[in-house]
Write a structure and sequence with these properties.
The chain is α+β, with helices and mostly antiparallel strands. It has 13 helices and 17 strands. Helix 6 crosses helix 7. The protein is globular, with a radius of gyration of 23 Å.
Length: 472
């Protein structure tokens, strides 16, 4: 899910964000010839007309690069999901200028003052985006589920679609909670909760880590923690379901690109147990890691700190390609607890366009296009580098705003919690303030993980993005 766009009016911060993009080698405007290629109308042949299907999208309010639109219905004792994914391949000529530029960018990057898209806006926010009341080409998934939401059949075909409504998470949550949602939307909760139950049964984990958000108000900045709504989770389950269906199709077909994650290394869960103890989180030995995660409330500071620490188990995720029936040794994603593929965000992530093409070929019983196979060797490395750049940019933006928020408050004292301690230097750690939502380094003596303490701001340098605290 992309972060919402935030308008920044502070000139020094705008300059800092621009310098950050330069330092990271983030591309700026698209070359004119690339933009011109993106503006060409696609030739659409062999698309089924499904524009009568009343699809809807769920995205942050300001989003206009809409990758997915869905429709849910009952089917006997089970359910049917129709899930339209923007057909970016209809607009991108393999080996063309637009294709080369997408491989250079890899994914859309989100900054507080702007968005740096994977594709020109005429495409990503226009001709290919599943905007309401517009006919668009799509890869339309049909996934049938039984009464417990186990997949019984999955199919994907090219189709023309027309979304009826652009919804947002808060609005969806209100309608469902109030009981005013029409059945296709009301079923999001029913299906979402059943899919969450399936996730529990297979041992999967969805981390509800609070997001540290940058909010601009009246020319100044605030940092807040946003815990995901239940609707965020239900919507994510739809995407996960489709990604698992795509992975199964590709494995059966013998050619594909998977999102993989090995099991946590020995000792990693043991370290988390020690972290739970330090944060005063009760973790009985008979309770599994997955069960503990589901019992936590991200609105509680100690729980939020623990959930953030759990993200260390996700390190090592990557992309695995295979072809000609030779399956890789690792085919699963440990957090999903099943084979999984990224295929639902082609407007914002390069690999999804390739996954969709393979699935379409698998269902049609046709060979994978040569341009897809030609990209296999470089694709995992490109995605890894693009993901690292996106993560670095996001953390650096938060660091910049944290320093700006506290730049005039050096010497002031705040309430905080120690959320990390250096294993080799117990006097060095990380403290998370209760308000404002700032996380920074603390230098003290014999810090204790989970310790609540009063801290003083001793450094807040927006030029270096450094915030440092000391015990008050």
């Amino acid at each position: 899910m992309p972060r919402r766009r935030i308008r920044v009016t502070d000139v020094p911060l705008r300059a800092a964000f621009a310098a950050l993009r330069t330092g990271l080698g983030v591309p700026s405007d698209f070359p004119p010839e690339v933009a011109a290629e993106a503006g060409r109308a696609p030739v659409l042949k062999g698309y089924e007309d499904t524009t009568d299907l009343p699809l809807f999208t769920i995205d942050p309010p300001a989003s206009t690069d809409l990758d997915q639109a869905m429709h849910l219905s009952r089917r006997g004792t089970g359910y049917r999901l129709r899930y339209a994914i923007a057909d970016v391949a209809a607009f991108v000529v393999p080996g063309g200028l637009l294709d080369a530029e997408a491989h250079r960018r890899v994914m859309t990057l989100y900054f507080p003052d702007t968005r740096v898209p994977l594709h020109p806006r005429v495409l990503s926010e226009g001709a290919a985006s599943l905007l309401p009341d517009q006919v668009r080409p799509a890869a339309l998934w049909t996934i049938d589920l039984d009464a417990e939401c186990r997949t019984t059949a999955a199919d994907v075909r090219r189709a023309l679609v027309r979304s009826r409504a652009k919804l947002d998470y808060e609005g969806v949550q209100r309608e469902i909670d109030a009981g005013t949602a029409e059945e296709p939307l009301a079923l999001l909760r029913v299906v979402g909760e059943l899919l969450e139950r399936q996730e529990v049964e297979r041992g999967g984990i969805s981390l509800r880590v609070p997001e540290q958000e940058i909010v601009e108000r009246n020319g100044s900045y605030e940092l807040t923690y946003r815990a995901p709504l239940p609707a965020d989770g239900w919507n994510a389950q739809i995407s996960l379901l489709t990604g698992m269906a795509a992975a199964d199709l590709m494995l059966a077909y013998g050619t594909g690109v998977l999102r993989t994650l090995p099991a946590a290394p020995d000792g990693a869960v043991g370290r988390l147990r020690r972290t739970a103890t330090a944060l005063h989180i009760d973790w009985p030995h008979h309770v599994s890691y997955a069960a503990l995660i589901r019992s936590l409330d991200p609105g509680i500071l100690s729980h939020a700190a623990f959930l953030q620490e759990c993200t260390t188990l996700l390190r090592g995720a990557g992309y695995t390609v295979f072809r000609d029936g030779v399956l890789p040794s690792l085919t699963t994603h440990a957090a999903v607890a099943a084979p999984y593929a990224h295929c639902t965000a082609p407007l914002r992530r390069l690999v999804d366009r390739y996954a969709s093409e393979i699935c379409l070929a698998a269902v049609a019983g046709e060979p994978v296009p040569e341009w897809v196979l030609a990209a296999f060797e470089a694709l995992p490395r490109e995605m890894s580098e693009g993901g690292h750049r996106a993560a670095t940019a996001e953390r650096a933006c938060v660091d910049l705003v944290e320093a700006a928020v506290l730049k005039d408050r050096v010497g002031e004292v705040f309430d905080g919690c120690v959320v990390d301690v250096d294993e080799h230097r117990p006097g060095v750690g990380t403290v998370q303030l209760e308000t404002p939502a700032v996380v920074g380094r603390i230098d003290g003596e014999d810090l204790s993980l989970g310790e609540r303490l009063r801290v003083k701001v001793v450094q807040s340098d927006s030029g270096t993005s450094k915030v440092r605290f000391a015990p008050a």
